Amino acid sequence: MFVIEGYDLLVKSKDKVILDIDEIKIPKGSVFACIGPNGAGKSTLIRILALLQAPQKGEIFFNGEKVRPKNIINIRRKMSVVFQEALLLDATVKENIILGLKIRGINPNVAEKKAKYWMEKFNILHLEKKWAKVLSGGEAKRVSLARAFALEPEIIFLDEPFTNLDSYNKKSLLNELSEILKGTATTTFFVSHDMDEISLLADKGIVLNEGRIIKEGKIYEIIR
Asked: Are 201 and 31 in contact (CB under 8 A)?
């Protein structure tokens, strides 16, 4: 069973091909890595699969259902995206995490419990009343991840979420996220160019170069 499938995906800018993918399938429960150099099309691919950008050509399927204008909003609600930048609101940590739950109509008491649960998971419960604007880079990353997981998405997209972290914070957060992904079995599409991140988190993946898939398989095969 595949959560996301993409076929004949094409994105061009003038005469330059940004993305040209015949087929990509993200298996349910997998941590699927997308590896490639800068300019390979990784961020474009993540936006296409997360339904944040429409390809000029091609089709996307979610749990076997073709994505169309009439169902795209409902499908987006089953996804979460964590970008390189935390993109936090000018509010407290807890308010940042709860907002998405409120928008989706979750009961306030339930939303509060979910927020606390994920703040504990990412070791930021002690920061719940702290203003997001004064957080360190590592703290902001944790808030961003907690906010995404609190929505309990069917798939989570991570676009180089460990960028600009120092080695200590990066190692700590990587280990925590690895345990969380194993415990929740959340389907994950993970973009990175860091082999340490990929080898720890992912089980399957693709190598992207100049917008095209040049290798696909299990992570140990790709790294080898």
From this structure: yes
